[in-house]
Amino acid sequence: MELLILAQLFLAWALASPTHPTKPDCAELANAWTNPAVDISQAIEVPPNSLNISSIVNEVSLCWVRGTIKYSAKNDKLDASGNNTLTWELFLPDSAKYNGRYLMIGDGGFAGTIENNTMLTYLNLGYAVAGSDAGHSEAANGDGTDVPFLRNSAELQAWIHNSVAIATPVTQSLVAKYYSQHPDFSYYWGCSTGGAQGYALAQYHPELFDGIYAGSPGNWYSHLILSFLWNGLHTTGKAYMSQQVLSFVTKNVIEACDELDGVKDGLIENPLRCSFNVTSLQCKFGQTPDDNEPTCLTADQIKALQEIYAGPKDIRTGKEIYPGFSLGSENGLLGQELILYLDYTGPILREVAFKDSSFNIFQFNWGSDVDAVNQKVSPFIDALSSDLSRFQQRGSKIITTQGWSDQYNAALWPLQHLQEIQRTMKSQSDFIEVFMVPGGGHCGSNPSYPHVPAVYHVLEALVPWVEKGIKPSDMLSSESPDGTNTTRKLCPWPATAKFVAGNIDNWNSYTCVYPQTPIPASQIAYSSYHEYGTSIPLPGTVDSCGGRQLITNITANFCRVVLDTTISNSSSEHIESWLPDTWSDRASYRKRRYWRMY
Ligand SMILES: [Ca+2]
């Protein structure tokens, strides 16, 4: 596909370019493209301060180009006879303000619209910015229960895997035409579905971008929707938790763990270090649960939270289907209870997995139906490869951000995926960094954490890495919804921000510190905890691994992890893992930990 597009590009360029190219005016771009699959419907000059999208205004004049691309049902190639249409837009800043960089903006949710406000933000910073609707119109998203584009296999594959690769060569070529020069560097920016598109680019189209931002990535989308379903089904009826109950839980979690990081600021820097046990909130004799002014939780609600922390499991094997949610994220989970499994899981299972509009998601089988999802859904919408060597070998870089209190995506997923990439690529994995955001939500704010800065200055970290080889040692976050001037320092995992001196609300008061002992893979990959077939309330009962112990007759330092788990009302199980410092093979060590050391 790539070769075909390049050939088409060259042909179009050869036909459309004069012998001695001069900068065309904006309107001329409407005639710049000669490939019959591409239509340019608009190319207009826009003066400064005249375009206002979601309160973001163009500070620079621009050439605003819009058009469509027809693509075929096979391999998503440009095809004038194709039945599928992708709509794109391009913002070209005045050449005096242009910074020489091309930037493609990804999509959110089911896509179908163009992220113009994000495009404007980066236009104002001098980028030539493109965006697309991911290959289908908003109308094709249907009414929330029926999502027609999912039934169109070309549109389905374009959505996450291919739409950016369809739109990028066309819009890049127009950038080159307008400035008479190919962009010096090409970047991609996306979050959520856009984050999944970012990993799909690195895997399937590694030749296109020098730098990729893939925030809160849904690149295991087929199982992300099973996470939605798991959470939705486990919080129905008596297990339902009101917003007040969810906020009550988070308040207690934060009270217990806020100061573990040395700063009392209403945030837990690393929830994996928090050992809060949610069963401590269960109503005791004489206490009455109250949805509006909660002081305790019912047993059903406690069980629901334990399932949410644990994440979905395959009933046949106990194997993790998707990671669970982290301590401190509870206050954002109302949408998991009420919306996400209906709006996303339902349509994808009905239209893609089972092709049966009457499929009842409440009857989902957490064994055989998972197999069906893996076979029928995953190949079209996931981007899971841990071998991104084609991307790495051309010198490209990828940065992910992930809020620990993401309302939609379990925060541990990008860390699990990072581990897989590091395990596969070993010393070649120095092209990826994941920045975790304490109190961070989904691609920005969790409304229950209004004091947490919601803008992550990703390109300020990514651009120097790509262009000068300066690997980011930290990242600025700013613009908290509460309107204060709070800034925070985000750190490349597994580093966390440690307070040094000064104002606790200023990012310069912190430094990124790596843990003295590696955070065990087992604390991130929770799945094997359930291989015993028990329901263990995690991570609440995992003792912090930070305090290493030296036992008298053992001479090596090791990390001791203790689990006390409730099996039933009358019995419990005590599990210990001793993780030696000197052990180097983390994969074996995980096996050893699960199968032999308890
Ligand atoms: Ca804190």
- Biggest β-sheet description: 12 strands, mixed
Proportion of residues in helical segments: 25-40%
Structural domain count: 4
Spatial gap, N to C terminus? 52 Å
Structural class by helix and strand composition: alpha/beta
Q: Calculate Rg over CA atoms.
A: 25 Å
Approximate shape: globular
Number of separate strands? 18
Low-pLDDT segments: 1-7, 9-21, 526-557, 565-572, 583-598
| Cross-sheet strand order for the largest sheet | 1-4-5-7-6-8-9-10-11-14-13-12
Which ligands occur here? calcium ion
Per DSSP, the total helix count is 16
Strand content is: 15-25%
Kindly report the average pLDDT value.
Answer: 87
Pfam families: Tannase (PF07519)
Protein name: Carboxylic ester hydrolase
Enzyme class: hydrolase
Organism: Talaromyces rugulosus
How would you sum up this structure, described in words?
- The protein has 598 residues and is of the alpha/beta class.
- The chain has four domains: 1-183, no CATH class; 198-218 and 383-483, no CATH class; 224-380, no CATH class; 521-595, no CATH class.
- The chain has 16 helices and 18 strands.
- The longest helix has 27 residues, at 153-179.
- The model is unreliable at 1-7, 9-21, 526-557, 565-572 and 583-598 (pLDDT under 50).
- Bound molecules: calcium ion.
- Residues 258, 261, 263-265, 267-269 line the site of calcium ion.
- Calcium ion is lined by residues 258, 261, 263-265, 267-269.
- One of its GO terms (molecular function) is feruloyl esterase activity.
